[in-house]
Amino acid sequence: MNVSIIGSGYVGTTLAACLADLGHRVVCVDVDEDVVARLNAGDAPIHEPGLDDLLARHAGDRLTATTDYAEAAACDVSFLALPTPSRDDGSVDTGYVETAARSLGEALGPDGDPHLVVVKSTVVPGTTDTVVAPAIEAASGRERGVGFDVAMNPEFLREGHAVDDFLSPDKVVLGADAERANETLRDLYAPLTDRVETAVVETGIREAEMIKYANNAFLATKISLINELGNICKEYGVDAYEVADAIGLDDRIGEQFLQSGLGWGGSCFPKDVAALIAAARERDYEPALLEAAVGVNDRQPERLLGLLDAHGPVDGRRVAVLGLAFKAGTDDVRNSRAIPVIEGLLDRGADVVAYDPVATERMREHFPDVEYADSAAAALDGAHAAAVVTDWPEFADLDAEFDRMARPLVVDGRHVVEPRSGIIYEGLTWGGSKPEPAVTARADGGAGASREP
Questions:
Q1: Contacts of 71 (CB under 8 A, 6+ apart)
Q2: How far apart are CA 332 and CA 327, in angstroms?
Q3: Among 50, 119, 240, 386, which residue has the fewest nearby CB atoms (within 10 Å)?
Q4: Is the CB of residue 173 less than 8 Å from the CB of residue 211?
């Protein structure tokens, strides 16, 4: 099948590469000429495990890129994979999606074979019907249901696992109101669903739009709940991870997303939860549980900083921040928990040195004056304290590197570091006593450790 993907961000690029790998001919349409050039050269514009291999295999053959919407109009189906950023009130800005729909409509024109336009972007219920379809109708002169159809096919891709998630999905959701659209989507995904056992959910367009939001809101709330429980465990000196392991055995709860820590970030959870809250308020409904989930998440970085404060001031002292990406496996720093942590450290007068395996340059845009190390060991060298913010596997291997610190205080926001003798260890939601009693005066003017194995 000939497929066009309009938008070449995390979702669009992954979708394009994976559809090409399924045997389809794919053309990526993007307004950024540099992105187009990189895709045609087989160079991924984002960091995503497995993506470089797929692009190297298919770029210039089954996958090409262009700035010309006419090539999209010549395909059988077009996906809109554009960003839907948050407005100040949390509501979704669909301007990019609407502009792309209009440009595609102009390229389609009034004549030609019926075209299927599939919304891949995350949009609130009703957007496909009230924004996308009218924009295509007005620009093309075609009638919906005659000259074109619309559908909604939400993505469930985790950054850092996007290729695997696409090729081994938990579910494929096809939202359409025309059988012709459903048939096209079934054929499109047949090379995947014939090979992998997965649930295929055929539903209405608005239901498909809502499924995406419900999915992310549920997971975000689950994370905030386990973090709240972890915070309480911390106050009582309870191992939150043993508690989580036990409750995860209940199949009504499940073991996934029970790792308490600094909370959620990235491009999806914060934006989608905010959008759902804003959409509910537009209908005069106050979503108290979702608001509480956001509140817990927003407080986690300050809790980490509070644990650091409990061990004495950091003014004028070197503090290492390990991990800048919002999660391991990606270079995405959008809504990363490292941002409020670094801001809090700078407000406290700390001399911040940061390290991340792949996200340094993206974080440098936020904090150009912060020192960036080229390794975790270099960041720890001479540091008065270290804050572990992202759960990169290499941080779990750190050991002798902590001996290079001026003071081996480790505040672990992701339960990554193995506590050992010689390290003053503070888990964010795990073990230890309350921060206040943790401070004990010493003859050298320092503070005692709350937990030193």
A1: 4, 27, 29
A2: 8
A3: 50
A4: yes
